[in-house]
Amino acid sequence: MKRPQLAIQWFPGHMTRAKRMIEAQLKLIDVAVELLDARAPRSSRSPLLGQLLKDKPRVLALNKADMADSAATARHLAAMKEEGCQVCLLAAAKDKGLKELLTAIREAARPALEKWQKRGLGKRAVRVMILGIPNVGKSTLINRLAGKNKAAAEDRPGVTRGQQWVHIAQGMELLDTPGVLSPKLEDGGVGFALAVTGAIKEEVFDREQAALLLTDFLADAYPQLLRQNYSIDIETDDSVDDVVAKIAVSRGCIKTGGSVDVQRVLSLILRDFRSGRLGRATLDPV
Ligand SMILES: Nc1nc2c(ncn2[C@@H]2O[C@H](COP(=O)(O)OP(=O)(O)OP(=O)(O)O)[C@@H](O)[C@H]2O)c(=O)[nH]1
Ligand SMILES: [Mg+2]
How far is CA 111 from the centre of its chain? Predict the structure, then answer.
């Protein structure tokens, strides 16, 4: 299907500071972990990080796997492995996949640590930088691994501002970083996927338009989620406006004059999707 396109009022200058911080820490770390959103594994991958990290050992982790379509996740995972990436599945907020991630990190760090020990410098902790787009769960992951809330985590992009080292028990030090976005938000539906999953601040895109595109996408790719959650029928020739109107009626989003409260119903659909209430869905094609 054609990927929904959403315009983002976007100024790449905002990312320059984060980029400089990452560059400055690079020589201190053994491994970089890039968290991707399992609902948008392609769109959430930043080409910028690839350039910054050069040949630093890297582990990819598809986080929020609990919210993604598991069949699509399996296909994305296989495709990424085929490309030679070291990648694992994660649901940090649910404590799922943490052990596998730690194993992958240790494996990736081994050459650097061996070199260190050969120089007679003894044992030291593995140093890991946690990277990824805003709101993907970097701070949550660090808190779960540390076993306590060391890093601020909230459901909105841009919570982490500076960098912060956190020691965890397993001989590891983790560096939390502010989210970094792809400079290519306009390409191939990337802006759409990142806007509806909550990686982009709402001030820089049209929330109603994003919700409308999302409804259109879901009616096409996951109609059963809309049918079940909103107890509506969806016919194959329904337009997106028809679907929105049906959801509005079912949820009582009707103005006093009897017309559909489009703003309210679209806001509700977007909220339901982001909270995971609608069910599992993946936005990126494999
Ligand atoms: N469902 C689900 N939610 C998650 C998962 N991991 C993190 N979250 C939620 O995602 C939201 C953002 O988490 P943060 O840890 O603050 O994300 P961040 O990457 O540090 O964000 P910035 O600092 O803004 O770049 C929070 O509401 C978390 O509870 C997960 O595996 N599954
Ligand atoms: Mg954070």
Answer: 29
Q: pLDDT per residue over 235-280, tens digit each?
A: 999 999 999 999 999 999 999 999 999 999 999 999 999 999 999 9
What would the pLDDT profile of 91-122 be if each residue is shown by its tens digit?
Answer: 999 999 999 999 999 999 999 999 988 988 87
Tell me the ligand closest to 178's alpha carbon.
1
- pLDDT(126) > 90: yes
Residue 128: phi and psi, rounded to 5, are: -125, 130
Burial of 76 (0-12, 13-18, 19+ CB in 10 A): buried
Provide residues with CB under 6 Å of ligand 1. 63-64, 66-67, 91-94, 132, 134-140, 153-155, 157-160, 178-179, 276
Task: Using the atom order of ligand 1, give the atom closest to the CA of residue 142.
Answer: 15
Quote the number of domains for the chain.
2
Asked whether residue 183 is domain-assigned, the answer is: no
Distance 158 CA to ligand 2 centre (A): 7
Residue whose Cα lies nearest atom 23 of ligand 1: it is: 160
Tell me the C-alpha distance between 258 and 256, whole Å: 5
Task: Tell me the whole-structure pTM to 2 decimals.
Answer: 0.94
> Is 65 contained in some domain?
yes
